[in-house]
Design goal:
This protein is of the alpha+beta class. It folds into two domains: 68 residues, no CATH class; 119 residues, no CATH class. The longest helix has 15 residues. The radius of gyration is 21 Å and the shape is elongated. A hairpin with a 2-residue loop joins strand 3 and strand 4. The strands form four sheets. A two-stranded antiparallel ribbon has the order 1-2. The chain is built from five helices and eight strands; from the N terminus they run E-E-H-E-E-H-E-E-H-E-E-H-H.
């Protein structure tokens, strides 16, 4: 039996899961024998993977088929938003393969997995708004910012609309470990904030427990951002 311990934040979630089989057969082609049949090694829990298979899986995992791009303030000035996807760089070093992913791509993937976890709905207000260009009017906010060594993982993210995002970043609102919405006593309009947050007084939570905000990151936000 093998146990893999993966440090949180040391990986980037795929934009979408990759199935074992694709349209033309197994994505991991190394499991096929010389006759093109699935070999017995495909049943092994731990097996080596070729650089070619690794490259193929990663490219499919990060492929942007229908990107959930954010709203642009200058959409009227730049229709189409024809920005090219940042390329991957694979550098083989002996038995290891290192992957360099640009910050732009990491932001896009982070946005996709967070918005998917929250069904494109603001966790604070409950609003799910899609603009005329098919883009969700909600952002994927880091609970612990990247500048403060916050990882690009879904449990360090939360889907927030513009106003909620602004208040969260400036410490006017925060979250308890049970996702109770905390309103700072330093805000000048607590009643106004109370009128736009969820009636339950708690942030919406993703269905999967592993996608929910981790108490470690929530504690960091309360201690370093929230204005008590």
């Amino acid at each position: 039996m093998y146990l893999a311990l993966i440090e949180p934040g040391s990986y980037l979630d795929f934009a979408h899961p990759i199935a074992f089989n694709g349209a033309t057969g197994p994505i991991e082609q190394g499991v096929l024998n010389a006759q093109g049949r699935i070999s017995g090694r495909a049943q092994a829990a731990v097996r080596p993977i070729s650089p070619e298979d690794f490259k193929r899986i990663v490219e499919l995992g990060f492929e942007e088929r229908a990107p959930l791009l954010p709203r642009l303030d200058n959409e009227m000035l730049s229709p189409g938003f024809d920005e090219e996807q940042a390329p991957f760089r694979f550098e083989q070093q002996r038995d290891r393969i290192s992957v360099t992913v640009s910050r732009i791509l990491r932001d896009r993937i982070f946005r996709r997995v967070v918005l998917r976890a929250y069904d494109e709905r603001c966790a604070i207000t409950g609003l799910k708004l899609i603009n005329g260009r098919g883009r969700a009017e909600v952002a994927a906010a880091h609970i612990r910012p990247v500048e403060a060594s916050g990882p690009d993982i879904v449990s360090n993210g939360i889907a927030l609309s513009g106003t909620a995002h602004w208040m969260f970043d400036r410490g006017l609102i925060s979250l308890a470990d049970d996702l109770e919405i905390l309103i700072s006593r330093q805000t000048n309009d607590p009643q106004g904030i109370g009128s736009i947050i969820n009636k339950s007084g708690r942030a919406l939570a993703p269905r999967r427990m592993s996608d929910r905000p981790h108490p470690h990151f929530l504690k960091w936000h309360r201690e370093h951002c929230f204005k008590q």
